[in-house]
Amino acid sequence: PQVKSFTNVTSATTVNGTPIELGTFTPVIAANQNIWYSGGRIDHQLTGTDKLSYRASLDHRVSPAASGNRTFGERWAADSLSFGQNHALSYTKVIGPRMVNEARVAYTRLNSSFPERDPKSSTINITTPLFTIFGASNFPQDRLEQTYQYQNTTSYVLSKHSLRFGFDLARTRLDKFEIPTDECGLTQMKR
After folding, report:
1. Paired strand residues for 104
2. What distances in angstroms separate CA 142 from CA 32, 129, 159, one per listed residue?
3. Most CB atoms within 10 A, among 39, 127, 135, 147?
4. Distance CA 39, CA 61 (A)
């Protein structure tokens, strides 16, 4: 790739008496995304006082070269892939002219991963100045988050007032998977 964007260039650092130019390189990387989103809802009136509803949404996203070591362009970057889904089933019961009860169960899942484009190269960190060669040491990563939920609410109309009470139980499970790569650190010692 052709280098076009250096900023903060300085020649203050010397190695064995030879001045070395240092600067900040900011590559231009396209921020492409491929997003697919869909959703739907089905309502069914079981009887005059009973209603059943189902709602679902799916969200699939692909973002190439979204993170990781993007210093030299896309070669050692990491992609961002995610797939989220949400499902809910609701049951509504009209108990009388003043009371309505709604029960709902829901499941939400988010599966996101950050695979690196070059999983074979080891990471080399040079700490003075801060500089990384090859892929970042904290990739690849995977994350799976799942939430199970149960809700029940009752509404009661009393004269000019509306009372609402209920409960919400939720359990979230989060699994994170990360395989750090081999690292090699080089530090310049000052005398």
Report:
1. 90, 151
2. 21, 30, 54
3. 135
4. 15
